Amino acid sequence: MKYGGVWIRGFAQALDYVFLSLFFFPVTYLVKGTWLMFPEDHLWIIFDPLCAIFLIVIFAYFILLEGLTGVTIGKLILGLKVLSVDGKKITLRQSVIRNFGRLLDGLPMFNILGIVSIARSPIKQRIGDKIAKTVVASLR
Q: Which tens digits make up the pLDDT trace of 120-139?
């Protein structure tokens, strides 16, 4: 099995965020009257209920798509798929674990721990993957 490395996975995630932005920007405009929110646009200085909804949508997007299909839009476009380490389809439970593992992978900033973890792992696992016993396979 060939595994997805740092660059292709990062690009897939960037594509996912572009896709999500196609929803977030218009909703932000409809709700707030602006395409981008700045601190003065937030209800609570640095945070806003709309941001909380977006965070929930982001987690649901990754958890549900990967848990049900093994792919997100970005992974599909780039030929990547999340699998269990034994090569089988992941469970919804594994998807929840690997995606909440993003909170660890993102530390201390800019996903540094996740990047280092993928680069040093023989099967290209980030911390969330190790905990969930999953891998990102390249289907090409």
A: 999 999 999 999 999 999 99
